[in-house]
Amino acid sequence: MKLLILDIDGVMTDGKKYYGLDGMPFAKTYCDKDFTAIKFLKASGMQVCFLSGDNKVNENMAQNRNCDFYYARGRDKADFIEDFCKIYNVLPEDMAYVGDDLFDYNIMKSVGQCFCPSDASSFVLALCEESGNVIDRKAGQNVIARLVDILLDRKIIKTVTLDEIEALDKNEKF
Questions:
Q1: For the chain, which end, N or C, has fewer CB atoms within 10 Å of the first or last residue's CB respectively?
Q2: Are strands 25-27 and 18-19 parallel, antiparallel or unpaired?
Q3: What pLDDT score was predicted for residue 88?
């Protein structure tokens, strides 16, 4: 596994959005341990990016966290695979995806490994159950942090030092 692609809403958030009087979302809640987990993954040599249908809040979060962000609204997420092969110099079988909803299903079928939180949609759950990749956390409850534990247990990633993680932390904007 060389590239981890992360859906955000329903994985790193509980899927709830806060809407303003203009009817547009302006805030959501993320689990901070997931951001540390992403730094751990990067320090271990994994490339990580976000793929989301919401660029209002999520894109700014990604920029502040120094992570690549791709906007998928109106486009099948599986269509990004060819782009990711070129951008990250990987093959589809070297990619993993974490998603939770029907909009994630096609890309999840097209990459080497797919994972989902335990409260994902039934179609996504069924797909991830086939490979034993249902993460035992609900959306927004440290799903990525738990994924790091799973990847370490399976020896897919290596252990890193606190210094390596802190070096990445200094590159973030807050």
A1: C
A2: antiparallel
A3: 98
